[in-house]
Amino acid sequence: MTHADVSSADHTAAGAAALLEAGRPHLGLELGSTRIKAALIDDSGAVLATGSHAWENEFSDESWTYSLSNAWSGIQDCYADLVRDVRERHGVELTGLASIGISAMMHGYLAFDAEGEQLAPFRTWRNTYTADASALLSRTLELNIPLRWSVSHLLHAILGGEEHVPRIAHLTTLAGYVHWQLTGRQVLGAGDASGMFPLAASGDAFDPELLERFAALDEVADVPWNLPDILPEVLVAGQDAGSLTAEGAALLDPSGALRSGAVAAAPEGDAGTGMVATQAVDPRTGNVSAGTSAFAMVVLEGPLSGPREEIDLVTTPSGDPVAMIHTNNCTSDLDAWLGIFGRFAELLGRPADPEELYSTLFGAGADGEADAGGVLSYNYVSGEHQTGVPSGRPLLVREQEARFTLENFMRSQLYGAFGALAVGMEALLKDEGVQLDVMYAHGGIFRTRGIAQQVLADALATPVAVGESAGEGGSWGMALLAAYTARTAAADGSAPTSLSSFLSEEVFASQELSTLQPDEAGMAGHATWLESYRTGLQVERLAGELLD
Prior knowledge:
By secondary structure, the protein is an alpha/beta fold.
């Protein structure tokens, strides 16, 4: 059952229409890697309408980027699609919102001058040319500072002597930028902020000691600004992040129908909204978000043994410490292969819709041998830091005696989607001994019930739960953060419930979860496959060196 089904089951048509006419729904909008999505919910999280817009990154001037003009046209198209869905489902026009929240891909580089003009093309999380800057920061701050973090991109620009650096007045993420344009506030939620620069132990501000260490670097001695002055203000979930201005409402809805005034949640990254969408905000819980990239977020009970290259230390939207395992690649190569099979079906004169195509081929993968019969799949559309691959080339490799069947091919494709993630999670679960009671999962790969979920449970040797929100993803999670912010804003000075309590008591209490335990044969087969996968990484690295 999807959240759309939940809304139709739990709300009369008249009740939903009345709520919408009164301007009391909550909107979450997320700019993902391949889709901009919107979810409109009521106070308990039931989805009233959705919208979407497809978009793609571009590789321009040796950098992965999205133009901000495409971002705005996509946001407007996504919102218009949501308005159409409201009209078709409920017979009313959407003119008001109780609250709004913006989420987007984390990290990357968006720099602006004092007049708000963009100084350089948006550099996304996918770019891996910041290795020297990342290494210098990791040594200086004595923490693992990943290639994709905003401060790595900033230092990379400084080291390269880029002409725009002296003119930087404001540095933010994609979510922070959109929120700024809609509300006038230059703020960022704790989860997204923790991917720009390390936060203090309190989780509600950038670490002042580490800011001083950055300032003491010889390489930044000549810049005319101080890092704290160009970073956004950090807010935790529920804090006042402004409201939708008249200019922001017109930007979101050029038709002029949308009123201003909606309470705004702190803008968040897709990792934070994934945690909220899966109720993974308490210690010993975690979540996997799978899309173009994949990342696992594990809420920590205590500190790790020390800095590790495989593990990023970030926070929940409430500022609690989280270990993050991030991979640049997940479903892109799998989707490309399924597109090949879809085209083959068309040539046979028997076209298959995407749901049928995925369920049929995923089902074949479930029937494959536990070790995929000696078939290896590397889904590296881009470089992969988790496995030390600087430049990716998707590869299908098999042993001479491999059992090359459709079933084993698809099993290997599913393993490959989570291959780099499995490598990183070994460092966290085995080497660091972090305890996990359950891993929640969401993303389109889990829409075919049970198959990718079982693969992941076997790969992590951990129970994996998938809920009704598995296919909704971060836009729904962001809408929940918006609803929570509206709740705290209406508390009239009384202590509001925590985000954890809000989720457990008011959103997930009645939601059905499907939990799969790891299978002994599946774990053993995956371990064999992963060992071969590690060995074959040398071939993947060589492909990047030789194939342009």
